[in-house]
Amino acid sequence: MGSLSGWDKTSIGDFNGFAIRDGELWAWGGNASGQLGIGTLIHVSENAPVRLGQYSDWTHIAAGTSHSLAVRDGMLYAWGLNHRGQLGLGDTVNRWSPTRVGVLTGWGVVTAGLDYSLGIRNGELHAWGLNSSWQLGLGNTTDRNAPARVGTRTDWASVSAGGTHTLGIANGLLFAWGREGDGQLGDGGAASVTLITLTQVTAHSDWTHVSAGETHSLGIRNGELFAWGNGVNGRLGDNAPHSQTSPLRIGTRTDWTAISAGGSHSLGIANGELFSWGLNTSGQLGINSTVQSLTPHRVGLSSGWATVDAGTNHSAGINSTAYLSWGNNASGQLGVGNTTNRLLPTAITFP
Q1: Could you give the count of Cα atoms lying within 13 Å of 329 in the half-sphere of its Cβ?
Q2: How far is the C-alpha of 280 from the C-alpha of 227, rounded, in Å?
Q3: What percent of the chain has pLDDT over 90?
Q4: What pLDDT is attached to residue 2?
Q5: Which burial class, exposed, middle or buried, applies to 12 when counting CB atoms under 10 A from its CB (0-12, 13-18, 19+)?
Q6: Which residues are within 8 A (CB) of 100 and not within 5 positions of it... i.e. 6 or more apart?
Q7: How far apart are CA 1 and CA 98, in angstroms?
Q8: Taking a C-beta distance cutoff of 8 angstroms, is the pair 268, 296 a contact?
Q9: Which one, of 28, 23, 22, 2, lies nearest residue 348 by Cα?
Q10: CA torsion angle for 268, 273, 274, 275 (degrees, to 10)?
Q11: What's the pLDDT score for residue 3?
Q12: Residue partners of 225: CB distance under 8 A and separation at least 6
């Protein structure tokens, strides 16, 4: 369900951002790899939102490191850098504007990681792009330049691509695959391991949300918040800067509804309130300082938060009245019309 402001989807990359408002797709920030989809490769940065095309039926958006994915009317589109086949177009040719991927429909959730992509189509999981760390879940390290089905399950509900690891939920079960160096797979083994195929993490069957960061992971199970992987700078939220190789419950709340794991910080929503924790050198926690937080820290006094997304050094979220962003803004990735960092959530003005 969309917010009262009309904004209901957001996804931010390293130096750019996207949002969907009433089915319209908007982009802003850095464009060094053509990842904004504005039809040019020239190193142009847009520090205010630019609408992509005239369609008004976009339903999902995913920003990767240097490429982007989106879904409209069940059709998959991709654009940006494509040197590892991460656009899924059957080649390694870059694209500077949204280009349809294949002829199939039925696409829903998509996620873009570090030069690789995954998507769910009619409950089936598909992956493509870079595969050097087994992150596609196909049992080998061969790159794919077109969507390849992963496994045989038809009940995938969500998937999240990180740096070299991937997480997904099917029928309430949590799965992980790829390479870790800090326990971000959550399988409980050594902190540095590789899972070459989809591996179930924990025996619980009530996982509802999952988010893969660069080297850490977050999940929600039965309204409870869990974190695992790299704990440096407090990004796990457990008040200790050390790593965890298994999902660790954070706090005692049972009303978490959204999470996002970024480069070195984390965001979450509980009872409509926004919380942040981890590294804060650019103000990405939104707490009006650059001091890191080892535990979830409430952001402001506003409620009504619906969705949130953590990038490398900046953040964005949607509440009942506006689309807001904060943190690093060197490439205009906050979309506020300039390149000044923000230490507090700042509403974006859209045309």
Answers
A1: 23
A2: 18
A3: 91
A4: 46
A5: buried
A6: 75, 76, 77
A7: 25
A8: yes
A9: 28
A10: -70
A11: 55
A12: 218, 219, 237, 249, 250, 251, 253, 256, 259, 268, 270, 296
Average pLDDT across the chain, whole number: 95
Predicted local confidence at residue 192, as pLDDT: 82
- DSSP designation for 232: G
Q: Residue type at 267?
A: L
Residue 255 in tokens? 């009303």
Which ranges of the chain have pLDDT less than 50? 1-2
Q: How much is the pLDDT for 189?
A: 81
The Cα 343–Cα 314 span in angstroms is 10
**Vertex 68: Cα angle to 148 and 323 (nearest 5):** 135
* Cα(47)–Cα(49) distance, integer angstroms: 7
Give 349's contacts (C-beta < 8 A, 6+ positions apart).
48, 336, 337
Tell me the whole-structure pTM to 2 decimals.
0.96
